[in-house]
């Protein structure tokens, strides 16, 4: 869940470099006559564009009418929701985004309601519009848990792909590096314990 | 009792309140004193900075450390990226780290003839932060305009590793050679657990969001830093890696500069150095039974520090962060994720946040890092509406102020904290050099406990910490 209180505004200093277009996590920026245009209705106020604009041409301003991006996880089939979380190796009640307080079950619900890309999930739940960095893997894991394999936005570099998880680290790697202090297997057991704590209740 | 040490000055940044709003520092409060680390622990090392020699000592130490480094792989017409991270610029005012970087540039230029030497300075979660430091320390002029503040959302490059495909920031690897310039401050022990500390930037400030997210979600609290080793060990990085240079830190300041063509060899030395130099003060902080914590330093909430220990690690001081037998520190992102909506832990393995922290007075600390967990778990007073507004506007802290109250000035906040908690123990996270600022009763408590803690670390904890990391105790000699 995210209360969206800000929006991006582009000044005349825009040089049309398209950096903002390439990184917007909800694809809310397009180019017109070599100037960035913000789709204000879809801007989630994350500030990614403002933070990377090479000429400081974007400013974040307060919205006159803030809105809340939230999916009610109780409104979807709970069995299917739990299945997605289980496949993705998350406890439905656990956080998957620290900035917006979004939990696995909210993202799973968004997927069940039709959000089939990270961008759509961000628009529906606000996830990945805080720090813009840390929660891409949980989103991709939950999509995969629902059998969805999205492709990255064309022409951008919002995200590239899902990576390894604790359940996929090879025995060879575990054996080779455990003596250096990496507790691969014990951590996997810990994560499994969290998944199982309330799952199915 | 000593007078308080001058705290680190407020810094102008887009991530924090304008320094004009920081009207009073906690060190100016009545009944405050300071402790020098060397008075607590006689084996505290000597520093090269601060010292009588000033910043020249860092330049000399860097020149000396680089003397035997092989740079023969770098040819005159080659391009070289000196890779740096924001964190170094928050240490000791930032000048020592900047000077080390400048010296590395000078030595590489002098010994190899290379002119195309660029600075690639990475960040945490504040994408403009190193741009601010590049300006503040004149690095753009020094590098003849060849500097770049880089961020994890910038264009990436796939890196094939032992863990499969991970992703780095393309501009880190767009040169013939890379030089890894960092520091050994233990800082985020809750994340890396002092395992491969020296390698970590390859999974963080030089990495794309996919790799950083892998670190914080996919592998677990004690396996996560392997992402860094996997990336560093890849063919792509190994083919470009020239050498590394580290500002060796201790809680009292910089104690030297180390360099090596072998990052793993340097990593072993820095791992041991970190345990030796920070282990005692981190453990001593666990002896504090109750206190008011004052945040008073120009960086985000978890990173303000006292005696070299960041506040995030103080919130976990009720557990031994260096002991790898503990899976979850009281604060780390895996732990934070394992509380449900009602604030109840999802597993019995979640330990409580340090119960010794009765209240937090947020006198001066930035946004730009998800910090609502701290106000959710500890009563917090934020000083001034201006500072509250910074946090309210921060996309990473939309809930921080939901759990905090606002005071108009520091004195009001402290009166409230004293009256509510009933404790006279105050610890100030203001980055004071060579020691820490605190209240007199707390200083007395720490002095009383220091000798026992010192013995415990030397005799019991250090051997265990080293063994858990596969290090022979002889490395300390």
From TrEMBL, chain A:
InterPro entries: 4Fe4S_Fe-S-bd (IPR017896), 4Fe4S_Fe_S_CS (IPR017900), BFD-like_2Fe2S-bd_dom (IPR007419), BFD-like_2Fe2S-bd_dom_sf (IPR041854), Fe-S_Ferredoxin (IPR050572)
Protein's recorded name: BFD-like [2Fe-2S] binding protein
Keywords, ordered alphabetically: 4Fe-4S, Iron, Iron-sulfur, Metal-binding
Lineage: superkingdom: Bacteria
UniProt-recorded Gene Ontology molecular function terms: 4 iron, 4 sulfur cluster binding; metal ion binding
Occurrences of domain 4Fe-4S ferredoxin-type (ranges): 6-33, 34-63
Cross-referenced Gene3D superfamilies: 3.30.70.20, BFD-like [2Fe-2S]-binding domain
């Amino acid at each position: 869940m995210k209360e969206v209180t800000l929006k991006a505004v582009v000044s005349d200093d825009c040089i049309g470099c398209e950096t903002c277009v390439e990184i917007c996590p909800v694809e809310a920026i397009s180019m017109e006559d070599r100037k960035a245009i913000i789709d204000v209705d879809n801007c989630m106020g994350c500030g990614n564009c403002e933070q990377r604009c090479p000429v400081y041409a974007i400013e974040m301003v307060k919205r006159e009418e803030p809105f809340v991006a939230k999916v009610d996880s109780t409104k979807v089939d709970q069995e299917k929701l739990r299945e997605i979380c289980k496949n993705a190796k998350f406890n439905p009640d656990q956080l998957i985004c620290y900035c917006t307080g979004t939990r696995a079950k909210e993202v799973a619900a968004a997927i069940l309601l039709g959000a089939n890309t990270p961008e759509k999930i961000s628009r529906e739940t606000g996830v990945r519009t805080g720090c813009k960095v840390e929660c891409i893997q949980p989103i991709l894991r939950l999509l995969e848990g629902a059998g969805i394999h999205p492709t990255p936005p064309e022409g951008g570099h919002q995200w590239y792909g899902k990576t390894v998880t604790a359940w996929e680290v090879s025995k060879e790697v575990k054996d080779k590096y455990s003596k250096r202090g990496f507790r691969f297997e014990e951590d996997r057991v810990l994560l499994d314990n969290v998944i199982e704590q309330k799952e199915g209740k | 009792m000593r007078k308080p040490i001058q705290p680190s000055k407020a810094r102008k940044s887009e991530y924090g309140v304008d320094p004009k709003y920081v009207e009073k520092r906690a060190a100016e409060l009545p009944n405050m004193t300071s402790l020098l680390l060397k008075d607590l622990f006689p084996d505290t090392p000597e520093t090269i900075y601060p010292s009588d020699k000033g910043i020249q000592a860092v330049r000399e130490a860097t020149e000396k450390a680089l003397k035997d480094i092989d740079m023969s792989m770098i040819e005159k017409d080659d391009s070289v990226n000196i890779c740096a991270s924001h964190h170094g610029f928050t240490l000791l005012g930032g000048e020592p780290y900047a000077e080390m970087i400048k010296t590395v540039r000078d030595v590489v230029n002098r010994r190899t003839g290379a002119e195309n030497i660029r600075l690639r300075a990475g960040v945490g979660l504040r994408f403009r932060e190193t741009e601010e430091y590049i300006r503040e320390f004149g690095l753009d002029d020094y590098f003849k305009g060849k500097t770049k503040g880089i961020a994890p959302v910038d264009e990436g490059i796939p890196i094939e590793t032992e863990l499969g495909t991970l992703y780095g920031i393309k501009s880190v690897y767009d040169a013939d050679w890379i030089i890894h310039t960092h520091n050994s401050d233990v800082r985020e022990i809750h994340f890396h657990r002092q395992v491969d500390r020296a390698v970590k930037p390859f999974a963080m400030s030089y990495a794309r969001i996919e790799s950083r997210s892998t670190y914080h979600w996919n592998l677990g609290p004690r396996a996560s830093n392997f992402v860094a080793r996997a990336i560093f060990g890849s063919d792509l990085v190994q083919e470009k890696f020239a050498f590394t240079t580290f500002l060796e830190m201790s809680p009292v300041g910089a104690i030297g500069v180390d360099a090596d063509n072998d990052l793993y060899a340097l990593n072993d030395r820095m791992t041991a150095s970190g345990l030796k130099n920070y282990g005692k003060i981190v453990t001593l902080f666990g002896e504090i039974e109750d206190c008011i914590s004052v945040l008073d330093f120009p960086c985000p909430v978890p990173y303000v520090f006292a005696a070299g220990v960041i506040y995030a690690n103080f919130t976990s001081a009720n557990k031994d962060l260096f002991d790898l037998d503990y899976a979850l520190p009281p604060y780390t992102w895996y732990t934070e994720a394992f509380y449900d909506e009602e604030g109840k832990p999802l597993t019995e393995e979640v330990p409580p946040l340090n119960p010794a922290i009765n209240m937090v007075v947020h006198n001066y600390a930035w946004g730009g890092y998800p910090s609502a967990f701290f106000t959710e778990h500890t009563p917090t007073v934020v000083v001034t509406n201006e500072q509250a507004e910074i946090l309210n506007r921060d996309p990473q802290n939309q809930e921080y102020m939901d759990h905090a109250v606002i005071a108009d000035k520091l004195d009001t906040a402290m009166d409230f904290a004293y009256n509510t908690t009933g404790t006279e123990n105050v610890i100030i996270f203001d980055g004071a050099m060579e020691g820490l600022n605190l209240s007199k009763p707390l200083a007395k408590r720490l002095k009383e406990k220091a000798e026992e803690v010192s013995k415990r670390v030397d005799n019991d904890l250090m051997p265990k910490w080293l063994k858990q990391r596969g290090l022979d105790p002889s490395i300390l000699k």
